[in-house]
Amino acid sequence: MNQVDRKRKLLLTNALIVHFIDEDDDNFQNKRKWAKQWLLQRRKYSHMNLLRELQSNEPADYKNYLRMENHTFYELLNLVRPYIEKENTTKAFLQRND
Question: How far is Cα of residue 82 from the mean position of the Cα atoms in its chain?
Fold first, then answer.
């Protein structure tokens, strides 16, 4: 193989490598996101804010997240609310007898 043929093969090989690298970059940018936007932002929401956000913007994700319908969740919440709600208590102060 002479010098010219060798250079042509090397140039062709380099051109093919550049072509495939460029093609891979295009495919990388077109890939679907694996995480939903609300899931990426879950640290900024409390659980109730997250539920409200899901209920208004992503109803299918809301149902999937809770594994139940909206009315069923609130029905259950109302049943347990008296047991989990914070109560204001008055604490009796201990008096020292001197």
Answer: 32
